[in-house]
Design goal:
The structure holds two protein chains of two kinds.
Chain A lengths: L9 H32 L10 H32 L5 H13 L2 H11 L7 H25 L4 H9 L4 H29 L3 H6 L7 H11 L3 H30 L7 H4 L6 H28 L17 H31 L5 H5 L2 H4 L2 H11 L1 E2 L2 E2 L6 H23 L3 H9 L4 H30 L4 H4 L7 H9 L4 H33 L3
Antiparallel strand pairs in A: 1-2
Helix pairs in contact in A: 1-10, 1-13, 1-16, 2-5, 2-7, 3-5, 3-22, 4-5, 4-12, 4-22, 5-7, 6-7, 7-10, 9-10, 12-22, 13-17, 13-19, 17-19, 18-19, 19-22, 21-22
Chain B lengths: L2 E5 L2 E7 L8 E5 L6 H9 L10 E2 L2 E2 L10 E4 L11 H11 L4 H14 L15 H13 L5 E5 L7 H18 L3 E5 L2 H7 L2 E6 L2 E6 L1 H6 L4 H6 L4 E5 L2 E5 L4 E5 L5 E9 L2 E8 L4 E6 L10 E6 L4 E5 L4
Parallel strand pairs in B: 3-8, 3-9, 6-7, 7-8
Antiparallel strand pairs in B: 1-2, 4-5, 9-10, 11-12, 12-18, 13-17, 14-15, 14-17, 15-16
Helix pairs in contact in B: 2-3, 2-4, 3-4
Classes of the chains: A mainly alpha, B alpha+beta.
């Protein structure tokens, strides 16, 4: 039954595997190997820097606390979006995504503006920013799963005598559990490797492994310590990733799925009040930090076009560099990720799908640090090769492309290809006529995401961006690091620009997808 | 040199021989898992053969990929291309075969008229009803004038009135265009209505190929008899005796040796089940308006010409 799978000529099949593998080998495995070599050979042996256990403890518990709070915040939204049909539902679904594509630097700057002044804003700022950032993960994954739970199973339980609580516990919750644990694991992963938020909101004594790698490498120039911490981070992330992909594999195969249209219904009685309340609070939480950010930016717009001691260029030019780099990065991510998706879609979902997340989980900071020590001499020298910035960004964005495009390719009914074959379409013709148009929508979504993620990428870019070509997140960080309300104002103004660009990219992609989505 | 296919260690096709005459429709009838869909996939080239061969007009098709076989296929779930409108679905096969635009457009209109969808060229396939989807799938399969059309339970999962109407339409259409076709189904009535010949399949083997009348009159063995609806099968060792229900008459009689235990109407015929005093049961097809009600004591009379002797099982 080989014909049911996407069929390509042998040469193209090889290309779908070789290009992504070669790309990962050169720009992911090689930098990691450089870190490993540095850690093992440059004196000090395998010793971890002092205070590492404290570092690991803080990293872990803040991630756990963030995850619990994110679940608590995201579940009401997931319930609203996963159970009910109401005007503006698809808009609500799209808006929930906005915080997720907002660059961490923007979110951190917004919460800096939101919280009362004072040197130590406390752990709450970090937790709140993490919740804001990751609520989309819980809402989309759990809400999506909720919308496919066949209401007949709860109805059958009701007829058999189960009350509402009993039904929630014995029917709904078990069906939701895989999605819940998958969302929790992913949120934990994102918070565990959080960088921009901690760097900006953390203050002294609140470092995670990720920020400490940056601190050791970029500020203290202790490359050995940075390398050892990177290895620690890699190990910790591998454990989290393994758990994540096991949980996700379980989430994928849960029971029979109902069509969303049969599940959603209009809210009645108290549900109407609850839905309005949840959406209202959600809108407030979404809008408030951004409104404060815009407020703080007021009066600083003119300064974007003046020279400043903080940057080698005028601030507005950072937006131009950002757009250019993100464009190139999105193109690379779509090419590499798209080819990888084609290769992956050939086999059923499994462990390899989880491995694709590795560049993401291996942490952007490590990647940037790896670039720094791997590409420090010709022929590839980060000091003279501008394209290392988009390459680093594309490594962070490509896993998202794979994760969006692969399921779309897998969901194409193999019978469409079989019918096309019996109607005279050769395998490559069938690929062009059937697969390409049908994954177009997923591809558009992936393009928007890749662009938005590349725009906001901070952890890797901060290492490889050259001083005369800063991106927006790097510029924002520079301004935040300088004293004075004027610099804070310029940072806020740049953050508003960055938020606007990222949100536009993601929303545009969602619109394209929605417009073509009905027939799929 | 029957066709063989082994799927996951299980013999899905265990040496199948089937001849399809030009212009005829063969209905392949069997329960699910009997290998009938595998047979179609093998003919279409979507399933590799582990033995035997498929030939078309005397030419062996081994090594010919599906897109060069000139064989049409229609699935139960239609498999319409969701991103193309009605006309673009139907014209697909013509485009693949390099037919120029003008004749292709004319052919599409001709086919849509043939299946009763004239003027619907630019409807999106998502907006079609179940019956319309079937018609589009049929028109699409017929468009490149395939030498053989394969249909894999195309009318499964339809509501009964629509199903019955489409069976009639398909039968008329096949007769009109003299399309060579292989029609796979598990529905006896469908097979009888559409098949010039009916091939009964079980566990990867073809047990019998015969015209519907012949099949009804003389099934190959006890299993075939029961499967096509000949309920009165009495097994006596190696041989079995099959009595056609329409030849069994149940006449109300106070001194009869059986009692009616069930009666249900299915269209023009009422199926009656009577139990003899010794426990045996017999089924009768009654065509009148006043069948004996359950509980009525009846005398059973059987036309001896309607009893056939068949092997209990053939190998």
């Amino acid at each position: 039954m080989d014909t049911g799978r996407p069929t390509l000529s042998r040469g193209r099949t090889v290309a779908t595997v070789i290009v992504p593998v070669a790309f990962l080998a050169l720009f992911f495995a090689f930098p990691l190997a450089a870190i490993l070599k540095r850690g093992l050979t440059s004196g000090g042996g395998l010793s971890l820097p002092a205070g590492t256990s404290q570092l690991l403890w803080f990293t872990t518990w803040q991630a756990a606390a963030s995850t619990v709070l994110t679940l608590a915040t995201g579940l009401p939204l997931a319930w609203t979006i996963g159970r009910f049909r109401f005007r503006g539902r698809s808009l609500a679904r799209a808006l929930v995504l906005v915080p997720f594509v907002l660059p961490t630097v923007v979110v951190a700057t917004a919460f800096l503006a939101l919280l009362p002044d004072g040197y130590d804003r406390g752990i709450w700022a970090i937790l709140a920013a993490h919740v804001f950032f990751n609520v989309a993960v819980v809402t989309r994954i759990v809400g999506g799963a909720w919308a496919t739970i066949d209401p007949h199973s709860a109805e059958a339980a009701a007829v058999l005598g189960a009350g509402p609580l009993r039904r929630a516990r014995e029917v709904t919750l078990p069906q939701l559990a895989p999605a819940l644990s998958a969302a929790a694991a992913l949120t934990f992963l994102f918070c565990f490797t959080s960088f921009g938020v901690i760097l900006i909101l953390g203050g002294p004594g609140r470092a995670t492994v990720e920020t400490e790698i940056y601190n050791q490498a970029a500020r203290l120039f202790d490359l050995h310590a940075a390398a050892m911490l990177s290895l620690l981070q890699l190990g910790a992330v591998a454990v989290v990733l393994a758990v994540t992909s096991i949980l996700e594999a379980r989430a994928g195969g849960a029971g029979t799925l109902a069509a969303e249209d049969d599940v959603l219904r209009r809210p009645i009685g108290w549900e109407r009040v609850a839905v309005v309340a949840v959406l209202g609070v959600g809108a407030l939480v979404l809008v408030l930090p951004l409104a404060l950010l815009i407020g703080q930016a007021r009066g600083s717009w003119g300064a974007l076009f003046q020279e400043t001691p903080a940057l080698l260029v005028e601030p507005w030019q950072a937006a131009v560099f950002s757009l250019a780099f993100a464009g190139v990065a999105a193109a690379i991510a779509l090419t590499v990720g798209g080819l990888a998706a084609i290769a992956l879609a050939r086999r059923p979902p499994g462990v390899i799908d989880g491995l694709v997340l590795l560049p993401l989980g291996a942490s952007a900071v490590m990647l940037g640090f790896g670039f720094l020590i791997a590409f420090d001499q010709p022929p590839i020298d980060f000091r003279s090769s501008w394209w290392l910035v988009p390459v680093a960004q594309s490594l962070v964005a490509a896993p998202f492309v794979v994760r969006i495009v692969t399921p779309a390719l897998r969901s194409i009914d193999p019978r469409l290809r079989e019918v096309a074959a019996t109607l005279g379409a050769s395998p490559s013709r069938s690929w062009r006529e059937i697969d390409v148009p049908l994954v177009g929508r997923a591809f558009a979504v992936a393009a928007g995401f890749a662009f938005a993620i590349a725009l906001g990428e901070f952890g890797a870019t901060v290492f490889v961006a050259r001083a005369e070509q800063p991106t927006l997140p790097v510029a924002i960080f520079r301004f935040l690091g300088r004293p004075g309300a004027e610099n804070q104002g310029i940072a806020a103004a740049l953050a508003v620009v960055l938020a606007g660009l990222a949100a536009c990219a993601a929303l545009a992609a969602e619109r394209v997808a929605d417009g073509r989505g009905r027939t799929l | 040199m029957g066709a063989r296919v082994v799927l996951g260690g299980h013999e899905a096709l265990a040496g199948v021989d089937l001849d399809v005459e030009q212009g005829a429709t063969i209905a392949v009838l069997g329960p699910s898992g009997s290998g009938k869909s595998t047979l179609l996939r093998a003919i279409a080239g979507l399933q590799r053969l582990d033995g035997g061969s498929v030939t078309l007009d005397g030419r062996p098709l081994a090594g010919v990929p599906p897109h060069r076989r000139g064989i049409g296929l229609m699935f139960q779930d239609d498999a319409l291309f969701p991103h193309r409108d009605v006309a673009a679905n139907v014209v697909f096969g013509l485009r693949m075969n390099g037919v120029a635009r003008a004749p292709a457009t004319a052919r599409v209109s001709e086919l849509l008229a043939l299946v009763g969808l004239e003027g619907r060229e630019h409807r999106s396939v998502g907006s079609l009803s179940g019956g319309e989807r079937k018609r589009v799938a049929l028109a699409r399969a017929l468009a490149p004038a395939p030498r053989v059309l394969l249909l894999d339970e195309p009318l499964g999962a339809l509501d009964r009135p629509l199903h019955d109407r489409l069976v009639t339409e398909l039968a008329d259409l096949f007769a009109e265009i003299r399309q060579t076709a292989v029609y796979v189904t598990h529905d006896v009535a469908e097979a009888f209505a559409l098949g010039t010949l009916v091939a009964v399949m079980r566990e990867g083997k073809i047990l019998q190929v015969a015209r519907p009348e012949r099949l009804w009159a003389s099934p190959a063995d006890a299993w075939v008899a029961r499967f096509i609806g000949l309920a009165n099968v009495e097994e006596r060792g190696e041989t079995s005796f099959v009595t056609r229900p329409e030849a069994v008459v149940l006449g109300p009689a106070a001194d009869g040796d059986a009692v009616v235990v069930a009666a249900h109407r299915d269209g023009p015929v009422v199926t009656l089940r009577a139990r003899y005093d010794d426990g045996r049961e017999i089924t009768s097809a009654h065509a009148g308006l006043a069948p004996p009600a359950p509980g009525t004591r009846v005398a059973v009379s059987v036309d001896p010409d309607a009893v056939v002797e068949v092997p209990t099982a053939i190998d």
